[in-house]
Amino acid sequence: MNYQPKHLLVTGGAGFIGSNFVHYWLREYPDSQVTVLDALTYAGNLQNLRGIQNNKSYSFVHGDILDTALVEKLLHDASIDTLVHFAAESHVDRSILGPDAFLKTNIEGTHSLLKAAKKIWLDAGKTTHRFHHVSTDEVYGTLTLDAPAFTEQHQYLPNSPYAASKASLDHIVRSYHHTYGLNTTISNCSNNYGPYHFPEKLIPLIIVNCLEGKPLPIYGDGKQIRDWLYVEDHCRGIERILLNGKVGEVYNIGGNNEWTNIDIVTLVCQLMDIYHPHGAPHTQLITHVTDRPGHDRRYAIDATKIMDQLSYKPLETFETGIHKTVRWYLDNEEWWRGVMDNSYKKWLDKNYSDKKPRSQVTEF
Ligand code: NAD
Ligand code: TYD
C-alpha cells in the first residue's frame, strides 16, 4: 500500500455513489475519519447516510463546494489529507433542459475545491495529500457498435452539457497537477446501479414505475448501449486508486457489462414478475417515447489499466448485482417514496411531457 488516507473529505457524500462510498469506506477503514460536505440538492439525501450518523469517525457538513472559504476551513481545521470529489449535477436529461447549473456546480465548484486544496495543502508545503476526482466515461463521447471500448487514451468528445462539464473539469484537475504539483488522480467510470440510486435514472425509474404500475419510458428504439457497474464495485475501484494509484494518472473503471436499454428494462421487468407479480407481465408497461436529443449510442469501458496496474476486479456479477438492487427497492419503499417529493414530480412533468409515446400502454 502506497498511501493511507487518514481523514477524507467526501464531497457529494449524500448522493448516490458518494453515500455508497462513505458506507463502504467506514466499514473497511473504521479507524479513518470521514467528513461529508454536501449541499443536499434534490439528489442529496441524509437518509442515504442513515445508520452512520452516530459513528464517531463520521461528520456531516451541510454546505456548497462553491464556498471556497468553507472548504479551506474544513481542510485546515480537520487536518484533512484526502479529498474525494463526487459532488456534481449528474443527470444528462437535466443538463439538456438546464445546462447552467452544470457549468456552475461542476466546473466552478470543482475549481473552488482545487483552489482550496492548493492553498491549504500546496502553499503550506503539505506533500502528503490526495485530490481524487470522480468522473465519467461520458467525456469520451459515443461509440459505434463495433468500436473498441474506451481506454484512457481515447479522445475527449463529450456530447451532452453534462459530459462537456465533466470533460472540462477533468482538464482543469489535470492542469492543477501539471502546473502546481497537486497530487491528483481521476477515475472515469461507466454507468452505476445499486442502492440509493435516485429514481430519475433508468434502472431505479423502471423499478419504481413497475412498483407503481406506471409506463416504462424507453427513449427512441431502446438499442442504446450502456456498460453497467454495481456501485460498490465503483467504490472499490476508487479505493484501489487512493491506496495504490499513481499521482497524476487517470484510470477507467468498469465491469465489461454492456446492455442495450431495452434488454435491461426487459430483465428488470422479468425480475419484477418474480418478486412483485402483478397479474400481467411488467413488459406490458414498456412505452417507447421520443428520443433524448443528442442521445449517445454506446458507452463501453476498457478497464485493463486499473485491473493490471492496481489489481482491480469487480466483485458483483450483473446477475447478483441486479437481483440485489431490485430487492433493495422492494425492501426500501419508505426511502424511494421519501425522495419522490413535489420537485421530483415537477421534474417528471418537465422531462416527459414533450416525449410523446410512440406506442401506447395500458396502466395496471
Ligand atoms: P448524485 O446526483 O446522486 O449526487 C450528487 C451529490 O452532490 C448530491 O448529494 C448533491 O446534493 C451533491 N451536490 C450537488 N451540488 C453540490 C454543491 N454545489 N455542493 C455540495 N454538494 C453538491 O450523483 P451520483 O450519481 O452519485 O454521481 C456522483 C459523481 O460520480 C458525479 O461526479 C458523477 O459525475 C460521477 N459519475 C456518476 C456515474 C453514475 O452512473 N451515476 C457514473 C460515473 C461517474
Ligand atoms: P441514465 O440513467 O439517465 O444515464 P446516462 O444518460 O448517464 O447513461 O440513462 C441510461 C440510458 O437509459 C440512456 O441511454 C438513456 C436511457 N433512458 C431511457 O430510455 N428512458 C428514461 O426514462 C431514462 C431516464 C433513460
Automatic annotation (TrEMBL):
Residues 9-325 form the NAD(P)-binding domain. It catalyses: dTDP-alpha-D-glucose = dTDP-4-dehydro-6-deoxy-alpha-D-glucose + H2O. Its cofactor is NAD(+). This is dTDP-glucose 4,6-dehydratase. The keyword Disulfide bond does not apply. Keywords: Lyase, NAD. GO terms for molecular function: dTDP-glucose 4,6-dehydratase activity. Its EC number is 4.2.1.46. InterPro entries: dTDP_Gluc_deHydtase, NAD(P)-bd_dom, NAD(P)-bd_dom_sf. Gene3D superfamilies: NAD(P)-binding Rossmann-like Domain (3.40.50.720), UDP-galactose 4-epimerase, domain 1 (3.90.25.10). Belongs to the NAD(P)-dependent epimerase/dehydratase family. dTDP-glucose dehydratase subfamily. The keyword Lyase applies. GO terms for biological process: nucleotide-sugar metabolic process.
